[in-house]
Each structure stands twice: as structure tokens, then as C-alpha cells.
Amino acid sequence: MNPSFLAPKKYKPATEIVHMDCVNSGGESVSDPYNSSSVPIYQTATFKQTSSAGGGQYDYTRSGNPTRSALELHIAKIMHAERAYSVTSGMSALDVILRLVSSGEEIVAGNDLYGGTNRLLTYLSNFSNIKTHNVDTTDVAAVEAKLDPVKTKAVLLETPTNPKIKIADIKAIAEICSVKCPNALIIVDNTMMSPYLQKTLDLGAHIEYHSGTKYLSGHHDLMAGVIGVKTKELGDKIYHVINATGCGLSPFDSWLLLRGVKTLSVRMDKQQANAIQVANFLVENGFEVHYPGLKTHPQYDIHKKLASGPGAVLSFETGDIGLSERIVESTKLWAISVSFGCVNSLISMPCRMSHASIPESVRAERNLKEDLIRLCVGIEDPEDLIQDLADALTFAGFEVKTKSE
Ligand SMILES: Cc1ncc(COP(=O)(O)O)c(C=O)c1O
Ligand SMILES: N[C@@H](CCSC[C@H](N)C(=O)O)C(=O)O
């Protein structure tokens, strides 16, 4: 037989996302005695052992569970990670990762980032003597200026950022960091792109994490976080923290997330196609739109090098807080809701919702505008979405220009 026929085959991203191997490079695998087509939910806290010395592959669900393992093996494959882990939320994922940073060490992070991330970094600064430098991560020189060969333990990047959709050149920052701070970890929050559109571990990151609550699951019916790592050694450290603190994802949520992940490519393709049309509609109406699918985006070329698409989250300013409020409150299809990545379209005002935990003065310092509206585009018919937005704009007192086809 031709030996190449036996070699592990790499498929296109959409195929990899739906096809499960359940095995990793270390030979770890999960199998089901009945060959079930859908991974079963092992809803059990404990596993019987074969002897007083143990002997089973699993003993206790906090330490490991077959449903969770199946999810983690699959996530590792689609992230191009050596190992992957799943925990109870995106914040829990970041908490686990940041336990690799010790008192006295420093983090370099963005000045536009998710409000909850900012809250956790502030907590570490206040209670654990871990200082964060918040810089504009679109500016590689600004990141470099804050790197300290002794103190810097982590560079934490969101790209695109939440909510201003700014792009950080992961590759360029990782290269500079590997020279100036070879022991520092490049950590990327890849929630907005998902592993379907951007594979940060291939771009120089050591650790990639996600709020699995968003695109990976896709239906806003669970909370989860996932972590992918570049090396087994890093994986062992991450696993140790998860087992020690007990934040591993439950069997049911692991199953739900695994089910959601399988449709990631079809959801993202549709949401992204809709988002491009929504972005164009807003541009035609004179708004300043933050979206890396627009050629006018300041980091359009960099994003194109990092990711295979612009995603489906965008934001825009109206220049008037009252007008923004009226628009948000007048939509019918766009639900006023935090979060993104759901199949339904959502609208929000970040300064009052997802980023309200960042003090107003800090938001102002970071040029996060109070009138900013964030849109998370779903899978509805784009004509309905645009019409609903146009109606809301009109109702709010804005003169909508005719949509050019
Ligand atoms: C970019 C980003 N990262 C992380 C998180 C945290 O995820 P979770 O809500 O699942 O804890 C969120 C939102 O909550 C987010 O928007
Ligand atoms: N009350 C929550 C708000 C969650 S925001 C969720 C999501 N990341 C988003 O950007 O919309 C909190 O304060 O954490």
C-alpha cells in the first residue's frame, strides 16, 4: 500500500472544524466503546478504578473527563495547539493563564481591551503586585518601549480589540519580544476571530485563549473559556492550575461547546458576509466605521496578513450620545445585549455595558468614545438587518441616505 495513504491528512479549515480525530501528537486519545457518532456526555463526578493504586484513565471529573478531553483534543487540532484546555468562562481562562505571572513581574497589554480583562489586570495590580502597562498595541514601537528584559513576563494582545476593532501585528510584536524578552509569553485573546479565521500560535503566540461563550459555541447558551498552548511544557503548567483551582468545564457544557464548534465555519462565513454589507451601509451613510474588512481601516493590510477574514463585529461613532441611545433602543431585530458571536444580531453601547467597569476617566484617557455603538452581526437575512438599522436610524432622527446597491 502507498505509505502516503496512511500518513495523517490535513484538510481545509472547514473540514477540520467538523471532522473529529480525538487524538493528539502525544498519542492521547478518547474513544467510545459503542462508536457513537456524537461524543457522549460523561455526566459523572468519579470513575471506578481497577486497583487500589488507581489504574483508570480518569478518576475524578475536576481532574479529567472524557467529554472534556474530546472537546480539548478537537480544539487543539483546530487551533494548531500542542495542547488545549477548557474552563468555565473566558475570564477563567485568562485567570488560569495569568497565574503564570508572579508578584513583581509585569504585563504589557493594550489600551483598548475588553472591560473584564481590564478589571482582572487591575485586580492583579492592586492585590498581587503585578503591574500592567497599557499601550496602543497597533504601534509596535510603543509595545517595544515597555518591554523590560527582566520584569516583563507577558504581552497580552487582543486583535481585533474589543470594542474599537484595532489590529495588533502579532508577528512583529512576537519577533521583537523574542529578542528583547525571550522569557516573556505572548498571549493572544483570539475571541473575535475564532481559530477559523486566525491561528495565533502559527503567528508567534505562545498561548491563545477564547471566550468560548462567543463564536466557538455560537448560540449564547453556555459560558466557557478555552486555552491553546504552543508546547506540552506550557500545557502541563496550565493543566496544573486548572486541576488545582477546579475550573475545568463541566461535561454538559463541554458537550454543548463541542456541538457548537462543529458549525463554526458556516456561522462565521455567513455572519462575516452579512457584516461586510452592514459596514458598507454605515459607511454610505457617513459614519466612521471600525471594521477590518474596510480598506479604510488603518491596519487593513496587517489584518489581511494575520487572518483569513474580517469577522463579524464592528463599531461606529455617531458623534452624539443621545442619537446613539435612540438608535440602540429603536432596533427590533438587533437585540440590546452584551457579548458577540451569537447567531442572532446584537447591538450595544460598550461604555454603558461591556466596558462600564472601566472608570469613565480611564475610558476618556484611552479615547473610548461614550457614543460608540458596537454591532455583532448574526446570520439573519442581511436585507432585514440593514432595513431594521435604517428604520432605527430614521426613528432616532438621522437622515438615512438611499442605500446604493
Ligand atoms: C474579547 C473578550 N475576551 C474575553 C471575554 C471574557 O469571556 P467570558 O464572558 O466568557 O468570561 C470577553 C467577554 O466576556 C471578551 O469580549
Ligand atoms: N456584566 C458583565 C458584562 C459582560 S460583557 C461580555 C462581552 N465580553 C462583551 O464584550 O460584550 C461584566 O461586567 O463582566
Automatic annotation (TrEMBL):
Gene3D superfamilies: Aspartate Aminotransferase, domain 1, Type I PLP-dependent aspartate aminotransferase-like (Major domain). InterPro entries: Cys/Met-Metab_PyrdxlP-dep_enz, Cys_b_lyase_euk, PyrdxlP-dep_Trfase, PyrdxlP-dep_Trfase_major, PyrdxlP-dep_Trfase_small. Its EC number is 4.4.1.13. The keyword Magnesium does not apply. One of its GO terms (biological process) is transsulfuration. The keyword Transmembrane helix does not apply. It comes from the Eukaryota. SUPFAM superfamilies: PLP-dependent transferases. Keywords: Amino-acid biosynthesis, Lyase, Methionine biosynthesis, Pyridoxal phosphate. Transmembrane segments: none annotated. The modification N6-(pyridoxal phosphate)lysine is found at residue 214. Its cofactor is pyridoxal 5'-phosphate. It catalyses: an S-substituted L-cysteine + H2O = a thiol + pyruvate + NH4(+); L,L-cystathionine + H2O = L-homocysteine + pyruvate + NH4(+). One of its GO terms (molecular function) is cysteine-S-conjugate beta-lyase activity. Pathway: Amino-acid biosynthesis; L-methionine biosynthesis via de novo pathway; L-homocysteine from L-cystathionine: step 1/1. One of its GO terms (cellular component) is cytoplasm. Pfam families: Cys_Met_Meta_PP (PF01053). NCBIfam families: cysta_beta_ly_E. Belongs to the trans-sulfuration enzymes family. This is Cystathionine beta-lyase.
